[in-house]
């Protein structure tokens, strides 16, 4: 599939998202014959907006298979897993999201086209939300206490109060309508034609698209545990 064609469909789907026309967004995304991790993430976002959790989870599986280091993909899938009560898998995704934070307190996805910052404390918060659903209140508290070292005291304090009352925490997700967008300059260049009548999209964008098509050989399949989660967090703090 030509990058210019992918870019056109990607941009059209984002325009549909902006007016909350989720079905049109999905129909447009389905026309992309070689989806990327980012377009799969957007597909999942549209399914979530429609309340289609199983389809959202499936799209996130493909998203992660395209980019196995995409922390926000694991973060989002963990939240979906929680909502369909697949708790061990949700906790596993929290572990991998934390691992792929690579010791950063925050990852800003703006350069990749997603207007969202993923904080380490948010990943820990979702891990605590999983433990709440498992009835493991002490582990939930301990995860939050560990996360409090990274700041966001108000958020963590409120969550600790809820846990003390044995109130289950709601999972955090990337907000509705926040999706990966193509670069503005690339979209603008679609309207420009060189003397051969071909779209002018810079080589860097095409190269990045080609690299994104490389599939990893396997998907992560791990059984999560509290000790694994602590190890992942502590290791990144060293």
Explained architecture:
With 238 residues, the protein is mainly α. It folds into two domains: 1-67, Serine Threonine Protein Phosphatase 5, Tetratricopeptide repeat (Alpha Horseshoe); 83-179 and 216-238, Alpha Horseshoe (Serine Threonine Protein Phosphatase 5, Tetratricopeptide repeat). 60% of the residues lie in helices and 3% in strands. The chain has helices spanning 3-18, 22-29, 37-49, 53-66, 71-83, 87-99, 120-134, 137-147, 153-164, 184-189, 203-212, 226-237; strands spanning 106-108, 117-119. A two-stranded antiparallel sheet has the order 1-2. The termini are far apart.
**Strand-and-helix sequence, N→C?**
HHHHHHEEHHHHHH
Spans with pLDDT under 50 lasting ≥5 residues? 211-225
- Tell me the structural class: mainly alpha
Named CATH architecture of the largest domain = Alpha Horseshoe
Q: What is the strand tally?
A: 2
Radius of gyration: 19 Å
* Largest beta-sheet characterization: 2 strands, antiparallel
Q: Can you identify the CATH superfamily of the largest domain? A: Tetratricopeptide repeat domain
């Amino acid at each position: 599939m030509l990058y210019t064609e992918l870019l056109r469909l990607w941009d059209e789907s984002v325009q549909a998202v902006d007016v909350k026309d989720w079905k049109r967004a999905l129909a447009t995304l389905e026309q992309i014959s070689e989806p990327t991790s980012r377009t799969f993430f957007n597909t999942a976002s549209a399914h979530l907006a429609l309340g289609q959790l199983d389809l959202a989870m499936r799209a996130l599986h493909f998203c992660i298979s395209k980019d196995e280091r995409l922390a926000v993909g694991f973060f989002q899938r963990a939240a979906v897993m929680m909502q369909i009560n697949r708790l061990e898998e949700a906790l596993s995704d929290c572990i991998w999201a934390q691992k792929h934070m690579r010791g950063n307190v925050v990852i800003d996805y703006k350069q990749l086209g997603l207007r969202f910052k993923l904080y380490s404390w948010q990943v820990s918060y979702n891990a605590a939300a999983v433990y709440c659903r498992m009835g493991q209140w002490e582990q939930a508290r301990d995860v939050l206490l560990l996360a409090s070292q990274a700041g966001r005291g108000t958020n963590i304090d409120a969550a600790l109060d809820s846990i003390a009352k044995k109130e289950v925490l709601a999972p955090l997700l990337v907000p509705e309508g926040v999706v990966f967008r193509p670069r503005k300059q690339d979209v603008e260049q679609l309207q420009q034609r060189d003397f051969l009548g071909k779209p002018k999209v810079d080589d860097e964008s095409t190269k990045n698209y080609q690299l994104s098509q490389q599939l990893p050989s396997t998907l992560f399949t791990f059984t999560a545990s509290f000790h694994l989660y602590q190890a992942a967090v502590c290791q990144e703090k060293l």
